[in-house]
Design goal:
By secondary structure, this protein is an alpha+beta fold. Helix content is about 20%, strand content about 40%.
């Protein structure tokens, strides 16, 4: 499937901004089952400096600086993606994936194996997921048992988060602690992904945060998925001997062709669509729009 994606972010400021420096993570990466065919970015006002690089996790990063007075910042990216995740998803149900138990996974992770060096960094605390609380570990242990398949347990964890937590836009923001989300059982896709990752890390499994999109218009006869009008997020668990497996707790499904990956990291802080600093004395308002269309 081919998709055309338009992502627009607009900041409006009450007082003029005289300088800003920003980092954008909105250029989709080429990854397993996905290829970036074309990409453009339009920034207004025109940046004084702009550059692209690949970050530590392999994501596409755009850095830009504006050194002229402005009261509005607009960043629009247009991407063309081809995605074929069907065969990737089918591999998730193979014996190589589903037969690995928690006990076996932890044993492999504890060994000095070159195949687990990189994934093991996703067990450590990160900026937004740290000092895992006992109630999160207790929540995880309801699904994860030593002799049980990691895939089956993670799939059940995804289903439980979908059932136990309510999607409430605006209830949380970037600084809302996971403990609040856990207690109130409310949040958005970023929160649900991070709760799942916290559960995985609490028992010693690597959990990866994935930032991306979901197709705006679903196939005929299919319901529109939550998160389709903005950036979306889900998570992946690393199963030693197999690799990474994706799960979307917001929609209670393993990602398919409609899920488009922009980037991944330890949590939201590593891959927000746009972050930076501004020099201004006023406040700001934010407007984000995302449109994804399947194309021939």
């Amino acid at each position: 499937m081919n998709f055309q994606i338009t992502h627009t972010t607009e900041y409006t400021y009450t007082d003029p901004v005289v300088f800003c420096h920003n980092i954008a993570t909105i250029k989709p990466r080429t990854s397993l089952g996905q290829e970036l065919l074309d990409y453009t970015i339009d920034i207004n006002p025109e940046p004084t400096q702009i550059s692209e690089r690949i970050d530590f996790f392999g994501n596409n990063i755009t850095r830009f600086t504006i050194q002229k007075q402005h009261k509005k910042l607009s960043v629009t990216s247009k991407s063309k993606i081809t995605r074929n995740y069907t065969e990737v998803k089918e591999r998730f149900f193979s014996k190589a994936c589903t037969d690995v138990t928690l006990e076996q996974a932890l044993e492999l992770l504890n060994a000095n194996n070159e195949n687990t060096f990189t994934p093991k960094q996703f067990i450590l605390d990160s900026i937004l997921i740290r000092n895992t609380k006992s109630n999160i570990k207790a929540y995880a242990l309801e699904s994860f048992k030593p002799k049980r398949s990691v895939f089956e347990a993670t799939n059940e964890l995804m289903q439980r988060i979908f059932t136990d937590f309510k999607f409430v836009s605006g209830f949380t923001n970037v600084s809302t602690p996971l403990s609040v989300v856990m207690e109130e059982k409310k949040g958005v896709c970023q929160d649900f992904a991070q709760i799942a990752i916290a559960c995985l890390r609490s028992i010693g499994l690597p959990g990866r945060y994935i930032s991306g999109y979901i197709e705006t218009l679903p196939p005929p006869g299919k319901p529109k998925l939550i998160g389709a009008d903005a950036s979306h997020a889900w998570f992946a668990v690393f199963i030693p001997g197999f690799g990474w497996v994706d799960f979307d707790p917001t929609n209670n499904k393993i990602p398919e062709n409609q899920h488009i990956v922009v980037g991944w990291g330890r949590d939201y802080y590593d891959v927000p669509p746009l972050k930076g600093v501004v020099y201004s004395s006023g406040s700001s308002s934010l407007k984000v729009s995302v449109d994804i269309r399947s194309i021939e």
